[in-house]
Each structure stands twice: as C-alpha cells, then as structure tokens.
Amino acid sequence: MQKKVVKEFTEGSASFSSILEEARCGNNESLIYILNFFDDYIHELTKFIKAPKEEVVQEIQVRFIEEIRKNGYKK
Fold first, then answer.
1. Which InterPro entries match (predicted)?
2. Other C-beta atoms within 10 Å of 19: how many?
3. What does 40-58 look like in DSSP terms, one character per residue?
C-alpha cells in the first residue's frame, strides 16, 4: 500500500513535497487534495478506535490539518 502512495505522487506532475508545501502556505486546494488522498487511510484507522466513526474521522482530519499548517502559513 505504501508503494502505491509513493508511485502515485512520483508519477504525477506535482510531487507530494510541493503539494505539502503549498498546503502549509495556505493553499486550501492542496490541503483538500492531501486530505482526499489519505481519506481511505483515515477511514481504515477508524476501525481501531472505539468511538462514532464520523467523530473519529473529523478528529483525525482536524489534527492532520493542524500538523500540516503548524510550521507554514504566516501572515
């Protein structure tokens, strides 16, 4: 599964690092792209947490966004 992730980003026109950097700088489209890309993985993780699925998905996404934006966007 990890090889698939790497392959998809290396074959695309933009690398994961450039998309991540754009998301860190405030580009919401890049952030949404990253969230959508990892959506299946996030939903897979919800199987291991005993809480309502949608709450868990939301919490993971929020923490994911916080971590991405942590050292980036500064006005």
1. HTH_dom_conjug_TS-like (IPR024760)
2. 19
3. HHHHHHGGGS-S-HHHHHH
- Along the 75 residues of the chain, how does pLDDT read in single tens digits? 444 544 555 555 578 889 988 999 989 999 999 999 999 999 999 999 999 999 999 999 999 999 998 876 554
Q: Round to whole Å and give the CA distance between 39 and 45.
A: 10
Q: Torsion-angle region of residue 2: left (phi > 0), alpha (psi -120 to 50) or beta?
A: alpha
Q: Which residue has tokens 């868990």?
A: 56
State which H helix or E strand residue 23 sits in: helix 16-24
Query: Would you give the distance in Å from CA 54 to the centre of its chain?
Result: 16
